Amino acid sequence: MIDKDVEEELNKQINEEMYSAYLYLSMSAYFENIGLKGFANWMYVQYQEEMGHAMKFYRYVQERGGKVRLYAIKEPPHEWKSPLDAFEQTLKHEKHITECINNLVDLAEKKKDRATFNLLQWYIDEQVEEEANDEEIIAQLKLIGDNGQGLLMLDRELGQRTYTPINQG
Ligand code: FEO
Hints:
Oligomer: single chain
Number of helices: 5
Low-confidence stretches: none
Bound molecules: MU-OXO-diiron
Number of strands: 0
């Protein structure tokens, strides 16, 4: 049986991941509306990944004999000043998620919940990868500046991203 405090914090994290999915789906719509279909694709894949993160926690809570609670998902923004602004907001959001995961690790340690601690290692690695991806795209966008051709080249590259379903455990 899972510790009640751990269960509650995992349920809050399901909500954080669902919000992340919402945020990136909203960004995907924004990019599509401004004619950047590759960026829209990249964000749509990110939306799918976040749903995978949420569902991995969902399955875990159920498997540990806990109760999943689905809290209300807040409304994400729907407009950004530029592609760079959207990616800077993405990185800022991912840093917040990294902090949430770190807090969960601290709680799992405090409660001596080794199974949860173990699960969270996967999320720690995932956060390193996500922040690095965002930083790389931000750096490219800064180099591109106002160069429309550069932006279209990056759009083509981001259009190549495909979703690989994650192992739900
Ligand atoms: Fe679920 Fe983007 O971290």
